Known about the structure:
Elements: E1 9-14, E2 17-22, E3 26-32, E4 35-40, E5 43-47, E6 49-54, E7 76-80, E8 83-88, H1 128-134
Amino acid sequence: MSVPHARGFLLVRAAGGVWGIANADVDGLAARGTGYRISACGEVLAADEILGVVEGLSVRPAAPVLRRYWSELPAGLAVYGRLPVVVVDPRYPPAALRLGEEGRQPGPGRAGEGQSGEGQSGEGQSGEGLDEARD
């Protein structure tokens, strides 16, 4: 499924945040229990919800001061509509997105846990969440 010429970013919701992965880096996507398994750059990532693909995302570098608060410096930061997006390099995924031993564990009930109902309604599965964020 890898599409090297694909533009844009795959936006996903995981661990209470919105994350972006360069579309060209995504090798595969599969439903897994109540969430999704994403293969990218040889890594396996986990997401609670797929929000869609966005082409015109303006990614800015993260300020070095962010390291003070978060040891896993992202590839960049962006805003899509009203949604803050953490853009990651899938070769160095943050623990919040890793699937397996070091990161999140797959299993029932993972999506929406501790998120005050967010992600449980199916919002955004066909892109409607992205449209609402843009308004």
